[in-house]
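Example 4.3 (complexes with small molecules)
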Amino acid sequence: MKRDIELINAHLDKYLELRYPNNIWEAMRYSVLAKGKRLRPLIALESARACGGDINNVLPAACAIEMLHCQSLIHDDLPCMDNDDYRRGQLTNHKVYGEAIAVLAGDALLSLAPRVIIKHTPDSVDKKILLSVLDEFFKAAGAMGIVGGQVVDIQSENREINIETFNYILNHKTGELFKFAARAGALLAGATGEKPDALASYGSKIGYAFQIADDILDVTGTIDEIGKTPGKDSKLNKNTYVSFHGIEKSETDLINICESAKKILMRNKIKSGLLYDIADNIVMKAVK
Ligand code: GRG
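Answer. The structure with geranylgeranyl diphosphate bound is encoded below.
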């Protein structure tokens, strides 16, 4: 895992090489190269490995996924959204570079990410596969994915919502990118048959579980543990898994969902210690 993280970081550094105008590249580098867990790109690489593929075919897409994730974090922290001061253990992008540059840094990351996939995926990868990965990338990012989840999340603040709406938020705001990461890894590895969909289901469950863990840690975690200000969700009157279900059920559901993610791997004979460990780690970090 350490070696994969180093590989991802080295490639992100290369793709984000400083250019003119320097301040926008600096702002992009500031958030992307900060201390993130790199969970989504790790899942993409490991899915490819579990399907017997070459991880070099997936590295550009894995980095693009991290860029998209960082864009969503930069924009999520803006005063017009969650208005956060800290992220990844440092001041948020707009606190350092100002709101206009933070918006533009997010925009630039979102435009750079698919270009990284197009320019740096090895020529040996089938072009039809590449096109479908790009299509799924944009779907995961847009109104049918993260944006859709964020819109419904914002609209739901200070309001009572039903369980279907709540699940829509979780699955789209967080789940879609995990799902895409796992599926893209399989597709770029050349996997066929059941494996891409099985890994997509694993990713979807892991994403859902990850948001439950994030909601639990917002209540129980410290700033050092989570790298951002705790207690923001209740301050903003957000609908979270904990506000919806209480802490006890949140913990039990988190454990059960991670177990069912591992069962998908088992049923589909997907051999990867790391994918199992990721599921266990999400539980371990949030359930004390
Ligand atoms: C994607 C086009 C586009 C726009 C963005 C602002 C927005 C629309 C969406 C917000 C999405 C969001 C921030 C969801 C929360 C997901 C989440 C749990 C983030 C924390 O992820 P970690 O803990 O963070 O993996 P690190 O810093 O470790 O990478």
